[in-house]
Amino acid sequence: MTATAPLSAAAVAAPVPVIRADEVSLVRDGNVLLDAVSLTVRGGEHWALLGANGAGKSTLLGLLGAVTHPTRGSVEVLGRTLGRVDLRELRTLLGHVNPRHPLRSPLTVSEVVLTGLTNSVEPMPRWSPGPGQRERAERLLKMLGMGGKTGSRWPALSQGERGRTLIARALMPQPRLLLLDEPATGLDLAAREQLLDSLDALREEHPELATVLVTHHLEELPASTTHAMLLRGGRCLASGGADEVLTTELVSECFGHPVAISRTDGRWAARARRTARG
Ligand SMILES: Nc1ncnc2c1ncn2[C@@H]1O[C@H](COP(=O)(O)OP(=O)(O)OP(=O)(O)O)[C@@H](O)[C@H]1O
Predict the structure, then answer these.
(1) Are residues 187 and 163 in the same domain?
(2) Ligand 1, atom nearest to 61 Cα
(3) Which residues neighbour 199 within 8 Å (Cβ) at sequence distance 6 or greater?
(4) Are residues 162 and 180 in the same domain?
(5) Domain that holds residue 130
(6) Residue 48, CA atoms < 13 Å, CB-side half-sphere
(7) Residue 81 belongs to domain with CATH number
(8) Ligand 1 pocket check: which of 58, 67, 69, 237 to mutate, most ligand atoms within 8 Å of Cβ?
């Protein structure tokens, strides 16, 4: 397989990692935003990317989503090296959910989801979806708990409903990897739980799909999370199986604060550790 061969169904089915970032560094204006970070994500793996504000989580997500190029190191998507292949082609394999989706017009939920096929914010002029595509949009919305809202208009949606609509939109081109940047931020308790249930359902229905989810809060991790990476100051502090990485010791070091981590019914929680008062 050469780096420049066109993507084929056979290549997509090949047992190569969905994404492999090898010692990636990113320098902007002389600042090292990421320093030699390596991450390999395989089909069916669900990664949590955690770290304090400014740790480099969104920067790494941008590299994984083929939005930015590394200053050093390499990123391979299904064995194709970023910078050597057509980015537009690679991006169809990567669903990126941006919570700041810049949509202004009052599209319906179904219309927003269908823009995932043209990778545009607004519907493309002179493009209309086929019946199979409409049916897929409806099916995804139903799986994400939005089946009763397909005709609702974007400006009238709650933040949680928008988030789930954007996940359905990102899934339209059948990506191999879904990148989720703080999907639960700003959601109330019920909306967060609905989102996490939807992510668990999605992962069950699409066992080949890989995901990388950025968050600050362990409570925002779905129970189906399999792996985790902790970033601190642009460096990888720990990376591997979720239960090996999401420990009291490592998470405390990552956030520079003593916390105690627990896991109940598959879900994680963090609380500050009490320090002895003198
Ligand atoms: N274009 C840029 N030029 C210079 N510095 C940048 C640029 N983009 C981001 N940074 C800096 O890089 C660091 C990492 O930013 P990034 O957004 O990746 O962090 P994050 O972990 O996602 O943070 P947060 O949790 O606050 O969203 C921050 O200190 C940020 O100020």
Answers:
(1) no
(2) 18
(3) 167, 180, 183, 211, 213, 222, 224
(4) no
(5) 102-174
(6) 30
(7) 3.40.50.300
(8) 58
> Given this model, what pLDDT does residue 185 score?
84
Q: Are 172 and 206 in contact (CB under 8 A)?
A: no
Tokens of 123: 């519907």
How far apart CA 21 and CA 127 sit, in angstroms, is 35
Q: How far is the CA of 233 from the centre of ligand 1 (A)?
A: 10
Domain count for the chain: 2
Looking at ligand 1, which residue's alpha carbon is closest to its atom 27? 53
DSSP assigned state of 124: P
Mean pLDDT, the chain cut into blocks of 10 residues (278 residues total): 43 69 95 96 96 94 88 89 75 83 92 92 88 94 91 93 92 92 88 90 91 94 96 97 97 95 95 71
DSSP state of 250: H
Nearest Cα neighbor of 15 from 170, 206, 210 is: 210
d(CA 98, CA 270): 26
Quote the CA–CA distance of 75 and 78 in Å, as a whole number: 10
The whole model's pTM is what?
A: 0.88
Do 181 and 276 belong to one domain? yes
Q: Please indicate, yes or no, whether residues 184 and 266 belong to a single structural domain of this protein.
A: yes
Q: What is the pLDDT of residue 240?
A: 97
Residue 183 phi/psi, 5° resolution?
-65, -20
List ligand 1's pocket residues with C-beta within 6 A.
28-29, 31, 33, 51, 53-59, 216
Complex ipTM value: 0.94
- Tokens in use for 67? 């939005």
